[in-house]
Amino acid sequence: MAERQPISTAPTDGSKVTVYWKDGNGVINESVAQYRDGGWWTYIDSTTQKKVEPSSWRPAASDDDD
User: Fold this and answer.
1) How many other CB atoms are found less than 10 A from the CB of residue 40?
2) pTM higher than 0.90
3) Cα–Cα distance measured from residue 10 to residue 2, given in angstroms and rounded to the nearest whole number
């Protein structure tokens, strides 16, 4: 597994990456996200996207189903 890197070094070209972000309860979450429309967006369920403020990232695991 790749090391976490500062979010400032993450690609902002729409690539999917794994990000780490803290929710309103202070819990650190890990999810796949994309940078678009000026921010990081992730799915929080199968149909709902949320803009998050990640602190770090790493390359997303490859998914052969895409």
Assistant:
1) 22
2) no
3) 13
DSSP, residue by residue, 1-66 = -PPPEEGGGS--SS-EEEEEEE-TTS-EEEEEEEEETTEEEEESSSS-EEEE--SEEEEPPP-TT-
Mark 2-37 as b/e (b = at least 16 C-beta within 10 Å): eeeeebeebeeeeebbbbbbeeeeeeeeebebbbee
Q: Please, are residues 22 and 7 in contact by the beta-carbon 8 Å criterion?
A: no
Q: Integer distance in angstroms from the first to the last C-alpha of the chain?
A: 20
Mean model confidence pLDDT for the chain? 92
